[in-house]
Amino acid sequence: MGLLSSLFGKKAAEELGSLVKNMTEGLNLSGENKPSAAEAAPAQSTAPVSSAPEQADGPSGFSWGPVMPDEPNQYNFSGTFEQYFTKIFQEHFSAYALEMERSDNGKKLLYTFRSGVSTALIVEILPKSTSVYKVRQECQAKGIPYLRFYHDYDGWWNTEAYVIQRVSKALGL
Question: Quick one: how far is CA 101 from the chain centroid?
């Protein structure tokens, strides 16, 4: 820190040291592959839609990893991915009228959350190989918050807590 202190001053050196410490706390030195928050973010959200990449609020370990978590998630649910997401949306966001459309032989779902006559949020559930631009751009043009989840992304579990957290944030709750 001595060199940093002399170059930037003591306060700046302490802040830089703290930043480096925070960044390295998430590193796994055991040699196992553990995704960073940026790497573990295939489901993207914007509320309202933005062209800037989303930054996670920390490690996304509660919904990402090589081993299925014990908590409720899309893959240990007893039904289809459609039933899983519909159940969460109806149970936890019942204040919103929910509309759902299927496309691409049921591989893509589009949920519209309505508050009165206003569209509060569009949530797209799709396979990872699908183009994501059309609905996102339409939402951006109309100023409607947009969120998406992938239902077939290896290692991404879509835990119930993760889905609830992201939808709540997108709805401003």
Answer: 21
Residues 76, 128, single domain; the answer is yes
Least confident of 57-61, 64-68, 149-153: 57-61
Measured distance CA(41)–CA(35) in Å, rounded: 9
Two tokens, residue 48: 């309202």
Claim to verify: residue 66 and residue 148 sit in the same structural domain? yes
What's the domain range around 44?
35-170
Together in a domain, 86 and 160: yes
pTM: 0.64
Output the six-digit token pair for 154: 């290896």
Beta carbons of 123 and 99 less than 8 angstroms apart: no
> What is the DSSP secondary structure assignment for residue 28, as one 8-state letter?
-
What does the alpha-carbon distance between residue 159 and residue 28 come to, in Å, rounded to a whole number? 23
Average pLDDT over residues 80-93: 95
Same domain, 42 and 94: yes
3-class state of residue 113 by DSSP: strand
Containing 121, the helix (H) or strand (E) segment is: strand 118-126
Alpha-carbon torsion, ordered 47, 150, 54, 147, to 10 deg: 0
